[in-house]
Amino acid sequence: MYKKILIISLTFFCFKSFALEEKKESVDIKKLSEAIGHIIGKNLDELGVELDIKRMIKGIKKASLNKQSPMSEDECIEALAKLQEKINHKTCLKNLKEAEDFLAENIKKDNIIEIEKGKLQYILVKEGKGDEIKSYSTPIIKYSAKFLNGKEINSSEELITLNETLQGLKKGIIGMKEGEKRILYIHPDLAFKDDPTSLNSLVIFDVEIIKTSGKDNQNYPTNEIANNPIKNENHTF
Fold first, then answer.
1. Cα–Cα distance between 13 and 60 in angstroms, integer?
2. Is residue 29 classed as helix, strand or coil in its secondary structure?
3. Are the C-beta atoms of 88 and 197 separated by less than 8 Å?
């Protein structure tokens, strides 16, 4: 959240800088002003906080006249943090209900297999062969992950240690064979729970087993899912 606030602050700074350079550079200030307003609006929307746009414009005008702000920067950040906490709490409740409703309906489908009641389900896309993956295995898997709303989390092909990965992913992979493909539906309790960047969202994994045991294979990064951040998110598997 603080990063987004910083982006907004930098946007105001850029606007001021461009305005000062107006006479030196051939810039369409009207278009630039609208574009910067668009950037600000987009970042505000991502914050999830409904602000009074008219008062924001008033604040911009006061700042340009070097008039005092009604709140210090620290007070502003603290107030935003409190608002964000309330919004996150509501979103957690909403996402949790959506996850549980989805799993309750999903289990009614003929091709759905339940591993843990109300928590973990999967569809068998392709059968595999050979030895099954155990709880202590270090398989090489190819996967893609997304939230229930379709937002992508990450995709990769890598070697993982099941003892150091998401509980839902671990339980969903145990028993799979080489070449097998599954789509896993993981309740937030077995995924990222109420982490600020997932907020009780159900996670869907498309998983394929490349090798049931890849610990001696040096061509793959080791345990990336357990230790490295997912691209564009703050999650870790």
1. 11
2. helix
3. no
**What's the pTM?**
0.72
CA distance 166 to 221: 18
Phi, psi for 13 (deg, rounded to 5): -65, -45
18, 56, 65, 187, 190 from 61: Cα distances, Å? 16, 9, 6, 48, 49
The H or E element spanning position 207 is: strand 203-211
Residue 207 identity (one-letter amino acid): V
List, in order of start, the domains of the chain with CATH numbers: 2-70 (no CATH), 105-227 (3.10.50.40)
161: closest CA among 169, 150, 153, 152?
169
Residue owning tokens 């392709």: 126
Full pLDDT tens readout for the chain, 237 residues: 444 554 555 455 455 444 544 445 577 888 888 888 788 777 776 666 777 888 888 888 888 788 888 888 888 888 878 888 888 899 999 999 999 999 999 999 999 999 999 999 999 999 999 999 999 999 999 999 999 999 999 999 999 999 889 999 999 999 999 999 999 999 999 999 988 889 999 999 999 999 998 766 656 555 444 433 333 344 444
What 3-state DSSP class applies to 102?
A: helix
Q: Which contacts (CB < 8 Å, 24+ apart) does range 165-170 have?
A: 165/225, 165/226, 165/237, 166/190, 166/191, 166/192, 166/203, 166/225, 166/237, 167/191, 168/119, 168/120, 168/203, 169/205, 169/207, 169/225, 169/237, 170/135
Token pair, residue 196, equals 């600020």
